[in-house]
């Protein structure tokens, strides 16, 4: 399993904001580290998030809801999630509108992790 580091996510954020506009800046390094490390959590030697899809769901969920950046949290969280899938040999397919709607849904409706994972699974091969 390949993971992103907090530095990888910071790089994604800065590149996205530079390309698409907005304010750059990290609001809370501790929250970023916590969000990125969540998908690696174990209990009694077993992964809490047992699949790549659940790990990706945990990542986007934590990045979106922790608001670790000054701006661009939805963009950064979504691209980070997709990047983890690609790093692990998966293909992600969704329209821009579907991705935007998904990020807004996660941020505003705060669905359960399993619901987020279901959406990701439907768009991943």
UniProtKB/TrEMBL annotation:
Membrane-crossing residues?
Answer: none
Q: Which domain of life is it from?
A: Bacteria
Query: Known Pfam families for this protein?
Result: Fic (PF02661)
Domain Fido stretches: 4-122
| PROSITE patterns reported for this sequence | FIDO
Alphabetical list of InterPro entries matching this protein: Doc, Fido, Fido-like_dom_sf, Type_II_TA_Toxin
> What are the boundaries of the signal sequence?
none
GO MF annotation terms = kinase activity
Checking NCBIfam families in the record gives:
DOC_P1 (TIGR01550)
- Name it: Fido domain-containing protein
Identify the species of origin: Candidatus Curtissbacteria bacterium RIFCSPLOWO2_01_FULL_42_26
């Amino acid at each position: 399993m390949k993971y992103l580091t907090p530095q990888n996510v910071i790089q994604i954020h800065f590149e996205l904001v530079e390309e698409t506009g907005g304010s750059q800046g990290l609001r809370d390094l501790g929250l970023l580290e916590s969000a990125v490390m969540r998908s690696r959590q174990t209990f009694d030697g077993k992964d809490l998030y047992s699949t790549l899809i659940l790990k990706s769901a945990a990542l986007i969920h934590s990045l979106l809801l922790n608001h670790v950046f000054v701006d661009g949290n939805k963009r950064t969280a979504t691209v980070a999630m997709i990047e983890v899938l690609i790093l692990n040999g998966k293909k992600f397919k969704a329209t821009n509108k579907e991705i935007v709607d998904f990020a807004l849904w996660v941020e505003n409706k705060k669905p359960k992790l399993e619901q987020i994972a279901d959406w990701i699974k439907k768009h991943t091969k």
